[in-house]
Design brief:
Length: about 120
């Protein structure tokens, strides 16, 4: 990765990774490497999730019972752990998404006060 690419990457706010993982698991079970790749691809390579962050987050979500884990086989026929949202995790995803929308809306209002005041 070039220095410019590293400079363009964005550090995640604390708690954001949990939200991104929950959202990535919404369509169905996925293994860890695929979760990280999905976040990277969906963010147009702005966000990169390192193993040192991903797996502790997955363990934290398991402990909170927001996700479960089961053994399976990946696309390349390797053994892998597949993570799945629980009903509690789906509710938490909705809750966290509402919080995120509220936060980003507040930040947008601060960063663009003219638009809110009806000025160009």
């Amino acid at each position: 990765m070039s220095t410019k690419e590293q400079e363009e990457r964005v550090e995640l706010l604390q708690g954001t990774l949990d939200l991104l993982i929950l959202r990535t698991l919404q369509p169905g079970p996925t293994h860890g490497h695929a979760i990280a790749k999905a976040i990277e691809l969906r963010s147009d390579d702005v966000l990169q999730v390192e193993e040192g962050s991903l797996y502790p987050a997955l363990h934290r979500l398991i402990k909170r019972r927001w996700i479960t884990v089961e053994a399976g086989t990946s696309e390349n026929n390797r053994r892998a752990k597949f993570y799945r949202l629980t009903p509690k995790g789906r509710r938490q995803l909705q809750f966290e998404t509402r919080k995120w929308d509220k936060l980003t809306g507040a930040i947008a209002r601060i960063l663009s006060p003219r638009e809110q005041e009806g000025q160009p």
